[in-house]
Batch of 3 targets.
Target 1
Amino acid sequence: MILPISNTRNRLLRSMASDDLRTISRHLSPARLDLRRVFEQPGRRIEEICFPETAIVSVVARGSDNRGIEAGLIGCEGMTGVAVVMGDDQSPNETYVQLAGTGAVIAADDLRGLILASSTLADHLLKYAHNLMVQTAQTALANGRATIEERLARWLLMAADRVGGSELALTHELLSLMLGVRRPGVTNALHKLEGGQLIRAKRASITIRDRPGLEAIANGFYGVAERDYDRLFGGKTMAANDVEPAINLAGAAS
Amino acid sequence: MILPISNTRNRLLRSMASDDLRTISRHLSPARLDLRRVFEQPGRRIEEICFPETAIVSVVARGSDNRGIEAGLIGCEGMTGVAVVMGDDQSPNETYVQLAGTGAVIAADDLRGLILASSTLADHLLKYAHNLMVQTAQTALANGRATIEERLARWLLMAADRVGGSELALTHELLSLMLGVRRPGVTNALHKLEGGQLIRAKRASITIRDRPGLEAIANGFYGVAERDYDRLFGGKTMAANDVEPAINLAGAAS
DNA sequence: CTATTTTTGTTCGAAAAGGTACGGTTTGCC
DNA sequence: GGCAAACCGTACCTTTTCGAACAAAAATAG
């Protein structure tokens, strides 16, 4: 029940040169990405890298104390392990699955070899790494200057882009960890959004009803990194992603 | 009064392979980096890249409205223009000199050529680019979770590392722009630090008196990116930088 | 040495967000 | 169906930060 990787829903894979895609496909394995599956950990060598399809993976920065915050969000438009693309073998950030789904994984060593062998592949992945850096800079901006409501709107839009759908299965608690705010603060902000008919919230599930409305609420804190991605990887807006997932989870690899 | 680039005080240059340093030196020009000199601007092609020596350059992220915030700080440990190193030719962030001083500049096109010609050079600069990404992630963390006092302590430590000295010539106003907070908020936090004998503040000048004390106040928000830099580029701590500047600004340094 | 600009000190009230606690729902499990 | 766990709604008071305005001090220019 596993379709070939070349039909993957991951945009970063799909937008690479067909030669590169063919080559990398031989090393990629379709995988179910379960909640909290870890891809990077401070002080540990990165062993595996993933290209999400319907899952969302978070990059979380931590200080020397324990409090963390999300510094990057990765979905079907990207990949984990940009440290490897940039010639390092580890990162001080944690990277783990935030919203379960599917994706394709590859051994870090394999990817290193492929990058050495194909400069077009290296270029392609490096451009994404730079876009992720831009996203992180925008997150720093939002964390410093936006209200909880604005940051929440931004996060929901980004997440919706990355799963290619409008329903997000996550709890207030998770959102509060990502945004680095109090859990009731999230509840409160969600109520405001729901009051404006911008989202519908059920238990552990948020559905976007009015994208333009959300973008207006996000008040300029959403969009910079996304437009830069489109400039680099082609015009289609991120949200327009209605391809079927490459992996049919019925009986897929555990 | 301009010494050869090979004696530069820039650590990123000094730590590269001697072949690469020799080659790149032929394209580098020593330069005075005056306040507000711009190296990158959203939507514009990056033409010139600099390796600061005694200057500090800021990467500032802006949203679609006008409010910006510092997302990266670059001094004698790094370089501007990581977008170019990563195969792009522009960035949505602004990059400009925050604290005047000296440095070396190179045309972006020249650097592109050198990177293509030397994979060891490319590797070296890419590692720095990754470190800058880590720094930005830590900034996102600090912006989201630290108090003004903690963020200020962090910023002062980072800036002192990057100028290789303990005196910083800047105003509360500038700091408030970088940190994205109210100007009186900076004044207030500086008073607290001064009360604890951690700094001495004069008009448009802050001197660090007690580094360990400042690190304690920074409360875990300083150090992660710095330790990662040392892991990548060698053990010496950033602050230990007592080489003379390559450019003698006669009379400029009071 | 006076006038002007720049920088810093200080104040007020208001808004935003934090910490904590607890009650109410929904869900899932036995 | 009943119990436990997970998740959400709400309330309280405190702290932090903001916005705005204005006064004092230091540098600078004429």
Target 2
Amino acid sequence: MSNEPDATPSLVDRIGDGLSRVATAMRTEAWTAADAIGLNPTQLQILTFLVARGRSGMRVKQIAAYLGVSQPTTTDSVNALLRKGLVEKQADPSDARALSVAATPAGLAAVRQAGQLASATEDAIVSLSKLEQQDLLVHLVKIIRNLQTTGAIPEQRMCVNCRYFRPNVHDDPQAPHHCAFVDAAFGPAQLRIDCGEYDGAEPETQQAAWRVFNRGSP
Amino acid sequence: MSNEPDATPSLVDRIGDGLSRVATAMRTEAWTAADAIGLNPTQLQILTFLVARGRSGMRVKQIAAYLGVSQPTTTDSVNALLRKGLVEKQADPSDARALSVAATPAGLAAVRQAGQLASATEDAIVSLSKLEQQDLLVHLVKIIRNLQTTGAIPEQRMCVNCRYFRPNVHDDPQAPHHCAFVDAAFGPAQLRIDCGEYDGAEPETQQAAWRVFNRGSP
DNA sequence: TGACAATACATAGGATTCCTATATAAATAC
DNA sequence: GTATTTATATAGGAATCCTATGTATTGTCA
């Protein structure tokens, strides 16, 4: 980001600023939501992440990569959740070094409770039209895909990375894509960022699908 | 955000997730960029904020509101920057209780240096087409405006809040708006998030301008 | 097979953020 | 002229978050 005073920042810089502003609001909100259930933002984020993954459990390193923090920091927060009985550690049968962290029923309940709380960010997104929301989602998917390609974030459980994703195979502009897992057509507004049924495709398959997906919106 | 496992999250929830993912990447990036010049993300954010405001200086409370943290936390970080010689405190002539924090030349240099560093987020935004970037900026402006209306964030120095903003007064779809400060037409791609020449309009004026602005993109 | 490197996690130690509560000083209200 | 509000600083403490290192397990390769 260029920071020359008295100069007009580039479009890209201004988008970055805008994302920062929204991120600030989300962080403030995360503090209050987490505080309401006796947690802090990092702990709530971990718990939400684990709940979304179900009872299969995740490794400490995967959680660290998702959060974008170091492994010891993750251990700290996981232990804090452990003391509160919201997650549990299990030995990984396939690797005696590793362990599997999963949310307990109490953890699921806590996340649901936090989700009930009013969210200013959610309200702000709702203020956009349905079409604007759809466009915004697609733009975010593209940005996230790029962040993933450059290694800034780990591989995401998104449709566009998934082996069940068939982009632009239908004529219906409302639902041009197809999910081979549920065998149904769907459109841009249904794109997933973090899907439970996700199964990562090979890099070449991902790239091919990505090209076809992008062709739809030049 | 609803977190029912095995249920498809709403479009709004998925957009929230997407924003979170991008925010995570930006936070990670902020750590490395700030670390390269011997700061931490909060300190760099404060410094960038002060540099954008020029040498006029900002009060501690304003900085705290911008960051979304408490005032003592801001005092901590400002003092850290002070020790490093990157900011300076000056007495406010109009109010002996208050003080004015401004970036020093060394602070400006540090921000410029951090700005030179490669940014994965910037690259990811660049991967969007010009039109997509423009749409994204407009969507972010709308979200930020809404966050401001609900009090989640303080008033932003955006065009849409500014007394010099004249929305949708020209026929040119590329440049329908007008800035009375520089007396020039401009378009959605030139909208500012944080303008140096900003001067806040009265709430009623803002609302009226906002209605006219929104009429352009229903 | 056996030494060596890599991996997964825990621990140690320390700096810093970030909070609430409170103190100080100045401005404002009545 | 006293009381309240406002701007900032300070005190104290919890928790994040880092790097460096330790321990146990797995993988590699001669």
Target 3
Amino acid sequence: MSSDFTVIINEYMPLRELVFTTLRQAILKGEIQPGERLMEIQLAEKMGVSRTPIREAIRKLANEGLVTMIPRKGAIVAGISEKLLMDVLQVRMTLEKMAYECAFKYITDEQIEELKTAEREFETAIRENDLVKIAESDEKFHFIIYDAAQNDKLKEILTNLRENMYRYRMEYAKNRESREKLTREHSALIDTFVRRDSVEGLKIVEEHIHNQETVILEKIKEDAAASQKKTK
Amino acid sequence: MSSDFTVIINEYMPLRELVFTTLRQAILKGEIQPGERLMEIQLAEKMGVSRTPIREAIRKLANEGLVTMIPRKGAIVAGISEKLLMDVLQVRMTLEKMAYECAFKYITDEQIEELKTAEREFETAIRENDLVKIAESDEKFHFIIYDAAQNDKLKEILTNLRENMYRYRMEYAKNRESREKLTREHSALIDTFVRRDSVEGLKIVEEHIHNQETVILEKIKEDAAASQKKTK
DNA sequence: TTGCATTTTTTTTAATACGATATATTAATC
DNA sequence: GATTAATATATCGTATTAAAAAAAATGCAA
């Protein structure tokens, strides 16, 4: 059905991983909506594999919280509640600050250069109005900081928290206002590394997350209104 | 058994969950050592089930980081490195502080009472020198705080971080010195809720984690020395 | 039509068997 | 002794089966 089956795989990748990433993408992109059921046989037929890799993929998705499993009934795509999203953002706020502080201690000149490169990419993406590229280069920017923090567990958790909000990451890429904010914040953040001003840096990180919160909350309200209208 | 009819109902538990918890316990208790292989057929025979639930349990363990999976080779029990443990403790330090601050905002009188009860249990366990009970009531104490913080994601992550160090949790239960420290810290912490002194509370949390770090590091060094002696 | 009980279907859960493939070990060859 | 070939072992994936449970369909009486 979808066109991108031309995924070139260098390393050996078990089928379950392939199924996992495929389903994951479908859920995050909204192709499979929250509440929809994931049925083994159906999916197996659709994807041309046996049930075993499907099962294993679904269980992995459940572990990540993307689907909810009901014993002896099956799996449904999990919807994310507003409360949970706020909880996630609150934890992210704390850990992004921690990541910044650690990065501040360890960051090298090369990594600062990498940040600048990522930032240039980001700006190019904005000029070209390439939403996917905007979201990707934003992510790249932050992962450089996570790496600089030199704490694998922190990186792992932050990556996971980001994934929890993957569905909304396009929202600030769409919005002109928040895009400008993002650009400003990114360059200002690089500047704090150069100027060695961590106090200012933490402020920017805080504002950064707070902006995301605003945009996402708006989107949720929008969605809720839309679904209300639909079921009237 | 005859008086309370609500307790008797044992929920349905899939075989994979049973296998999962069994293996998990065995790993955490050290019955299966790091580096040992987990082979599907062997385990299936040993536990009297088929390979299917074994496979699913092993994958779940891999997801938790307790075992490492090597494609087309199998799964081995993961050893935790000193660096990773330090990373975990660093993140825990940040999040335990966050949990304390949130709990400080929302904690109710009833929850403070619960803390006092847990603390009494803890002291009883120490008097009876019951190591398992010591570790359990310590955990209970902290979970009351996590609950009071009213952030599900935070609780989830902290629970997981705790599990990362499950292997070492008995160590401070053994040590007389750290046991006394624990008791003092617990009651002092309760006191900060009552006196509404969050600054002092944060200090105690910080010290609490720091003490654990010391004890665990000592244990690791001990283990390393022992294994060196063994392979001489 | 409505409400209730029964039957059928669907789906997960679990067991089992088999072939293919990758890795490790051992044996053989140079 | 080092390299290569043969063997053994284990995972990976497919396929089939049976049991258990839930959901859907059906039938029937009021």
